[in-house]
Design brief:
Helix content: under 10%
Structural class: mainly beta
Radius of gyration: 22 Å
Largest sheet: 8 strands, antiparallel
Shape: globular
Oligomer: single chain
Length: 245
């Protein structure tokens, strides 16, 4: 019995000292980092932050000076930056101290990360919002202590700050599978929830999958019989494989 207890204690000690990958915490700057986190914020004084309810009303929350909060999605447009802090949205001001999590740490939560430009101000040319780069593509590197993504093609390189990028999982699907829309759905030119809907597709329409799913959107061809068919991203929850009941 004593020998069994010693063996059990040794196994327990090994598990604590050497946790499995799923149990190991990812740490940065003295705090745990979680999936989809872009950084953390502190405030120089107590301030109110707000969230908008579905009925149009607002709720407020007082956040205390020097307490840190995780940030998730980032929005950039009209020269302004907004951070999503849980359900609350905070505009960057002199009272906000933001520290980003390096791209390498953010991407470590994904098996096949894709980097999507979320800066609407067009700093990289017209139409750059929503451009994406697959993490396994040649030409991609992360530099400047993880704060910049560099993409090189044709001898030219462009650098993108980490705060201009959303990271999402790319899921490989079988190509050339036909899907039917189970409800009306909007098609987008990029797999971002905040992107505008470019086209409307009716329930019962048939589309052809190109085999990539990102952020809950499937990349499809709207008319499989047209050589110049429109390719768009459509929500996965609006589709079912042809033949499924």
């Amino acid at each position: 019995m004593k020998k069994f207890f010693i063996v059990l204690l040794a196994a327990f000690t090994f598990a604590v000292v050497n946790p499995t990958k799923s149990e190991a915490k990812v740490m940065y700057d003295g705090a745990e980092v979680v999936k989809d986190q872009t950084g953390k914020m502190t405030f120089k004084k107590d301030i109110k932050v707000y969230k908008k309810n579905p009925d149009g009303s607002f709720d407020s929350l007082v956040v205390k000076r020097n307490n840190f909060f995780r940030t998730y999605d980032i929005e950039k447009y009209d020269g302004k930056t907004f951070y999503q802090m849980g359900q609350y949205r905070v505009q960057a001001t002199d009272l906000v101290v933001f520290k980003e999590v390096p791209l390498k740490i953010r991407s470590s939560f994904y098996n096949n990360p894709t980097y999507i430009i979320i800066n609407r101000d067009g700093n990289y040319g017209a139409g750059s919002y929503g451009m994406w780069f697959k993490g396994k593509n040649q030409g991609i590197s992360i530099t400047n202590n993880g704060q910049l993504l560099s993409y090189c093609s044709g001898g030219e390189c462009v650098q993108y700050p980490g705060t201009d990028l959303k990271i999402a999982e790319t899921i490989s699907r079988e190509r050339e599978v036909r899907f039917e829309l189970i409800k009306d759905a909007g098609g987008k030119s990029t797999p971002l929830n905040g992107a505008k809907i470019e086209t409307i597709h009716k329930k019962g329409s048939i589309v052809l999958s190109w085999g990539e799913e990102i952020s809950g959107y499937l990349f499809v061809s709207v008319d499989e019989n047209d050589a110049h068919a429109l390719n768009v991203w459509i929500p996965v929850n609006a589709l079912k494989p042809v033949g499924d009941k």
